[in-house]
Amino acid sequence: MIAHLVPLLMAAGLTSCGVYMLLERSLTRMLLGLMMIGNAINLLIIDVGGPDGNPPIFWANSGKETDADPLAQAMVLTSIVITMGVGAFVLALTYRSFNLTTTDDVGDDEEAMRVLQLSDEEVIAAEPDQGVPVSAGDLDAVPESEELR
Known about the structure:
The protein has 149 residues and is an all-alpha fold. It has a single domain (5-53, 68-123), classed as Helix Hairpins, CATH 1.10.287.3510. It contains seven helices and no strands. It has helices at residues 5-22, 27-48, 70-101, 110-116, 120-126, 136-140, 144-147. The longest helix has 32 residues, at 70-101. The radius of gyration is 27 Å and the shape is elongated. The relative contact order is 0.10. It is found in: Cell membrane.
């Protein structure tokens, strides 16, 4: 199997640009990055699918010595459908986020930042006892000050 260098370099360039765009905070850029990676995968599948040949139809003949591989074409069609489904989902998330926050930038999670700043002792103290079954009688014995915690 002979793989041509130019399509491989194009797939590598599309993948690297797509990954760079996925690392941005804007959901629109994330969507464009996903589309770039999807197109790079399609180009890679077609490139490694083998040389061109006769169409994979029983009665068609284009004068080539070998037949084209229909599996690569079917995989690209499947990849296109999956990429469009993921793109539609991310576009719906972007639309919903824009309606709620009037921006498509993803902000920091305040709760995650608060937990990140906790010390180890505070984390251990905040964790509930694990593995201890609680019955209905145990809940009645808990003082009111601890129920709210």
